[in-house]
Design a protein that fits this description.
Shape of chain B: globular
Shape of chain A: globular
Number of helices of chain B: 5
Mean pLDDT of chain B: 93
Strand content of chain A: under 5%
Number of strands of chain B: 0
Oligomer: heterodimer
Structural class of chain A: mainly alpha
Largest interface: A-B, 55 and 55 residues
Largest sheet of chain A: none
Helix content of chain A: over 70%
Radius of gyration of chain B: 17 Å
Number of helices of chain A: 5
Low-confidence stretches of chain A: none
Helix content of chain B: over 70%
Distance between the termini of chain A: 28 Å
Order of helices and strands of chain A: HHHHH
Distance between the termini of chain B: 16 Å
Structural class of chain B: mainly alpha
Number of strands of chain A: 0
Mean pLDDT of chain A: 97
Low-confidence stretches of chain B: none
Radius of gyration of chain A: 16 Å
Chain lengths: ~120, ~140
């Protein structure tokens, strides 16, 4: 594992986080703040792409850079949990439960879809 | 947040995201695991990131004066880069493909329960400290 690969991990990780910020901002401003659609769109789109990379059977540095660094930094678990907890605090229990279930079910489905596409390529 | 941020915000997100991603990638490389083993690296970074995010966001929103770069750096950057949703979903998918249904269900449930509890705990910890006079409360 060369130094260059880790420099790329750092740069790609920064870029993936900035992309998440923009996509979340765009979706949130278009959909309103009733429900955390921004994070949902980020996480589902990232799951499709990571599933696709799994279908392509990337390994080694390619998997580290494209999967772990790029898609891994783009998606977020912590914000998903924060937004769910804040919905509960606002007594929006239905939305909080929906945010968990929809993200999880569609997340696995998105990854499966991506893997299916990747395996065909 | 409106998607017209200033350069400082974007730079803070980039720097934090780079750092969080480096930590997560290093752990993933150091502790590889089989598809049917508990994904400790992902589980660990996700719960730690949730703990930190609850702490940072609550403190920044309810205890500290307004700051233009702290939330992007610490929250969006470090915690967002450190945690990952997509890796967790692909790990669950691989468990399901390997017919490890109990493991998949247990991993999903434990991640969500621990992640939620982590946010709740760090939020409560910050709120136990009284608001300092002169600091901005949302």
């Amino acid at each position: 594992m060369s130094v260059l690969v880790w420099v790329l991990v750092v740069l790609i990780g920064g870029a993936g986080s900035v992309l998440r910020f923009y996509v979340d901002g765009l979706v949130s401003s278009a959909s309103g703040r009733d429900f955390p659609y921004g994070t949902l769109v980020v996480n589902l789109s990232g799951s499709v792409i990571l599933g696709l990379l799994a279908g392509l059977a990337l390994a080694g540095d390619a998997a580290l850079l494209a999967g772990t660094a790029a898609v891994g930094s783009y998606t977020t678990f912590s914000t998903w949990m924060l937004e769910t907890q804040r919905l509960t605090e606002e007594r929006q229990h239905r939305k909080a439960a929906l945010n968990i279930v929809v993200s999880l079910v569609l997340g696995v489905a998105a990854a499966a879809l991506g893997r299916l596409i990747g395996a065909q390529l | 947040m409106v998607p017209h941020p200033d350069g400082q915000t974007v730079a803070a997100i980039f720097a934090g995201g780079a750092l969080g991603t480096l930590a997560r990638a290093a752990l993933a490389q150091a502790f590889p695991h089989a598809a049917t083993a508990w994904p400790w690296p992902t589980f660990g970074v996700n719960i730690v990131a949730a703990l930190l995010l609850g702490y940072f966001v609550t403190r920044l929103q309810e205890r500290l004066p307004l700051s233009s770069y702290r939330r992007p750096l610490l929250g969006t950057g470090i915690c967002g880069g450190l945690s990952t949703f997509s890796t967790m979903q692909v790990e669950i998918l691989k468990m399901l493909s390997a017919h490890a249904y109990g493991l998949a269900a247990g991993y999903a449930a434990a991640s969500i329960a621990a992640g939620y509890a982590a946010i709740h705990l760090s939020t409560a910890l910050v709120r136990r400290v009284p608001v300092v006079r002169g600091s901005v409360r949302r």
